[in-house]
Amino acid sequence: MQKVLGIAGWSGSGKTTLISALLPTLAARGLRVSVIKHSHHDIELDVPGKDSHRHRSNGAHEVMVVSPYRFGLFAETAEGLTLDEQLSRLAPVDLVLLEGQKTLPLPRIEVHRAACNKPWLFPQDPFIIALATDVAADSALPQYPLDDVAGIADFIVNWLKDSA
C-alpha cells in the first residue's frame, strides 16, 4: 500500500492552499506525490454535450479521455469508493496526500485557522501527528505556521523516512 498522509481541517482552514504550496516543494526534494481530494457534494467532471458525456450518459461503465498531455477517467459509482479502491486507481508514487476524509484511521496533519472559529480536531483525533496553524495550540504535537511550507515539507519527508 502506498504511503498516505491526510491533510485535515474545517472548510476554509487552508487545506487546499497548503497542499498546493507543498507539491512543488516536495517535488523539488525528489518526491512523487499524488493528491486525493474528497468532496461531500456531487461533482460534475464531464461536460454535457461532449462525446465523453454522451458515452457515459448512454451507459458506458467508464469513459477515458486521452490526449498527448493528460487523461481523465469518468465513472459512475453506486457508492463512494473505499480508500483502497481510490488508491488502486492511482499510479505508484512516494506519497499520496489525502484532503478530507478525516474519519479514516490514518496519520494526518491538522490545518487550523483561528478565523474559522472552529474547534481543534486534535484533542479528539489520535491520528493527528502535526499541526499547521496561525495560532499556537496547547499541545505537544509539532506545530508549524501555515506559511512554513519548508518546515512542513521537512516534517513530511522525515515522517516518510521514519515510517518506512
Care to describe what's here?
The chain is an alpha/beta fold. Helix content is 25%, strand content 24%. It contains four helices and eight strands; from the N terminus they run βαβαββαββββα. A hairpin with a 4-residue loop joins strand 3 (62-66) and strand 4. The longest helix has 14 residues, at 15-28. The chain is globular and about 55 Å long. The termini are close together.
Produce a short descriptive summary.
This protein has 164 residues and is α/β, with parallel strands linked by helices. It has helices at residues 15-28, 51-57, 83-88, 149-162; strands at 4-8, 33-37, 62-66, 71-75, 95-99, 108-112, 128-133, 143-145.
Instruction: Report the β-strand fraction as a percent range.
Output: 15-25%
Mean pLDDT rating: 90
Based on secondary structure, the structural category is: alpha/beta
Radius of gyration, taken over Cα atoms and rounded to an integer in Å: 18 Å
- Distance between the amino and carboxyl termini: 12 Å
The helix content is: 25-40%
Helix segment tally: 4
Overall geometry: globular
Instruction: Describe the largest sheet.
Output: 6 strands, parallel
Instruction: List the secondary-structure elements in sequence, H or E.
Output: EHEHEEHEEEEH
How many E-type strands? 8
Report strand order across the widest sheet.
2-5-1-6-7-8
Low-confidence stretches: none
